[in-house]
């Protein structure tokens, strides 16, 4: 068979080194950090003959064949094959196992078109393609046509798992979002989980990465250099319940056309319930919405501390804490607000720092600003919000540049756009907005040392509100 000829060709090239080291060479990795000996390596290839023994010269034709014999810490290589159909059926990884895709030339490729493809049309694992354990590594795999979630962890602790150079495209029609990667953690401490250098695209009912913590669990995550496009679901959804905690870095990622199917799918959503905590860093994120996908509440990024007047009072925050840092990021042409910050809990703390970022061409249809803050409402009490913004552009909003609504008792928000007690240096550019530079409802905003386009800022002040904008910059700090 042609498939067997391909395997022999692989053995004559880079695969020999892979066998010697026990692990295939992958982009940015050291082949010496392999799976161990030859006997700990097993091979799978679409179109291979039935009855294979899992060797490189006689690979299994299915994932189930490899799963039945591969011990913990083994490496399962998935070889590119001639067959048009992807390898079908799910696989439950054991601790320490690696699932490595090899392109036709025997290398672990970062090109989705070259990666071997997997799917699952069976009922195994509830239709999921890959069930994680701990210390797994997945690389060079392309998941296609999902009808359930792609890579999942729900009954085990996935600590130490590395997912890199993975592609996910396409999903069946579904009333609920089908997640490319879904990590549900009800207990324990999850550490050192990363998803990097991966691509998620082309699915009206497909989402990117969802992390859900509950109970007293905690988790630390790194998400870096991932690209999301043309999805119905969010790029990153981080949800915490009960007294759980999530610490996550979202680095050097990009998203376009998130929210297909007229969905409310803010591309990044830290979502807190009950008494949970999140500490999130977003750095060098590039968001745009070229096709203007999504509903009128589909923001570029939303931080959401749940509470009244939303339904399901059992989810309301009482004592939640969210620390959010947004650095060197761009939110361009969102359907509505570029960044929306919502603190609707009681006795909660929302602390946000935005530095060196840009919000361009927002079309606010909710709070009213390209950057919007709902600090509290009349149904909540005892919360506080701090917002620092510096060296940031908020330009060409179809409503206001910045909007604050603080409807609770007294002033619960401390907003420093420059020269205030939080230490902002200002140097913001807030200009070109259709309705004015700021709308403030029952709030006090310090906004010194900013560029307002060479004129006094126009502010819509309602209730006991004030905008302190003097002195302003006398020239544009970042002229085009």
Largest sheet: 15 strands, parallel
Q: Which whole number gives the mean pLDDT?
A: 91
Overall spatial form: elongated
Q: Look at the helices and sheets and give the structural class.
A: mainly beta
Helix content: under 10%
The multimeric state of the shown protein is single chain
Strand content: 35-45%
Terminal-residue CA separation: 60 Å
Total helical segments = 3
The number of distinct β-strands equals: 40
The whole-angstrom Rg is 25 Å
Order of strands, main sheet, comes to 1-2-5-8-11-14-17-20-23-26-29-32-35-38-40
Which stretches of 5+ consecutive residues score pLDDT under 50? 1-38
Topology record:
Layout: H1 2-11, H2 14-21, E1 41-45, H3 63-69, E2 75-79, E3 87-88, E4 91-92, E5 98-102, E6 117-119, E7 130-131, E8 137-139, E9 142-146, E10 151-153, E11 162-164, E12 167-171, E13 178-185, E14 189-196, E15 199-203, E16 206-213, E17 218-224, E18 227-231, E19 236-240, E20 245-251, E21 254-258, E22 268-272, E23 277-283, E24 286-288, E25 301-305, E26 321-327, E27 330-332, E28 339-343, E29 349-355, E30 358-360, E31 369-376, E32 384-390, E33 393-395, E34 400-406, E35 413-418, E36 429-431, E37 436-441, E38 444-447, E39 459-462, E40 466-468
Parallel strand pairs: 1-2, 2-5, 3-6, 4-7, 5-8, 6-9, 7-10, 8-11, 9-12, 10-13, 11-14, 12-15, 13-16, 14-17, 15-18, 16-19, 17-20, 18-21, 19-22, 20-23, 21-24, 22-25, 23-26, 24-27, 25-28, 26-29, 27-30, 28-31, 29-32, 30-33, 31-34, 32-35, 33-36, 34-37, 35-38, 37-39, 38-40
């Amino acid at each position: 068979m042609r498939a067997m000829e391909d395997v022999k060709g692989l053995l004559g090239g880079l695969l020999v080194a892979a066998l010697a080291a026990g692990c295939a060479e992958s982009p940015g990795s050291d082949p010496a950090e392999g799976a161990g000996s030859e006997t700990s390596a097993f091979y799978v290839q679409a179109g291979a003959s039935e009855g294979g023994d899992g060797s490189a010269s006689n690979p299994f034709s299915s994932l189930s064949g490899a799963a039945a014999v591969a011990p913990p810490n083994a490496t399962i290589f998935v070889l590119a094959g001639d067959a048009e159909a992807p390898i079908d059926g799910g696989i439950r990884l054991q601790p320490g196992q690696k699932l490595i895709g090899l392109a036709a030339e025997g290398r672990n490729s970062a090109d989705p078109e070259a990666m071997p493809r997997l799917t699952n049309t069976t009922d195994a694992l509830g239709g999921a393609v890959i069930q994680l354990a701990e210390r797994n590594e997945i690389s060079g795999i392309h998941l296609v046509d999902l009808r359930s979630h792609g890579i999942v962890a729900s009954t085990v602790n996935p600590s130490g798992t590395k997912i890199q150079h993975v592609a996910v495209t396409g999903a069946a029609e579904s009333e609920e979002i089908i997640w490319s990667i879904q990590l549900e953690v009800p207990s324990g401490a999850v550490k050192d989980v990363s998803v990097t250098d991966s691509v998620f695209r082309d699915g009206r009912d497909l989402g990117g990465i969802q992390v859900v913590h509950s109970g007293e669990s905690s988790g630390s995550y790194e998400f870096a250099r991932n690209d999301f496009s043309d999805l119905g679901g969010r790029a990153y959804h981080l949800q915490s319940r009960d007294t759980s905690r999530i610490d996550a870095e979202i680095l050097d990622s990009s998203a376009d056309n998130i929210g297909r199917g007229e969905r409310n799918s803010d591309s990044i959503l830290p979502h807190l319930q009950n008494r949970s905590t999140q500490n999130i860093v977003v750095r060098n994120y590039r968001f745009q919405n070229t096709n203007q996908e999504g509903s009128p509440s589909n923001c570029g990024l939303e931080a959401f501390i749940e509470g009244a007047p939303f339904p399901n009072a059992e989810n309301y925050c009482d004592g939640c804490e969210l620390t959010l840092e947004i650095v060197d990021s761009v939110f361009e042409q969102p359907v509505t607000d570029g960044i929306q910050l919502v603190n609707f809990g009681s006795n909660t703390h929302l602390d946000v720092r935005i530095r060196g970022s840009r919000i361009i061409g927002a079309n606010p249809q909710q709070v009213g600003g390209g950057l919007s803050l709902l600090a509290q409402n009349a149904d909540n009490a005892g919360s506080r919000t701090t917002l620092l913004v510096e060296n940031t552009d908020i330009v060409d909003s179809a409503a206001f540049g910045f909007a604050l609504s603080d409807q609770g008792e007294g002033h619960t928000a401390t907003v420093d756009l420059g020269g205030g007690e939080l230490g902002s240096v200002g140097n913001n550019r807030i200009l070109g907005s259709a309705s004015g530079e700021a709308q403030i409802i029952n709030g006090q905003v310090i906004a010194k040392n900013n560029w307002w386009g060479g004129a006094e800022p126009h502010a819509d002040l309602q209730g006991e509100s004030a905008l302190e904008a003097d002195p302003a910059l006398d020239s544009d700090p970042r002229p085009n």
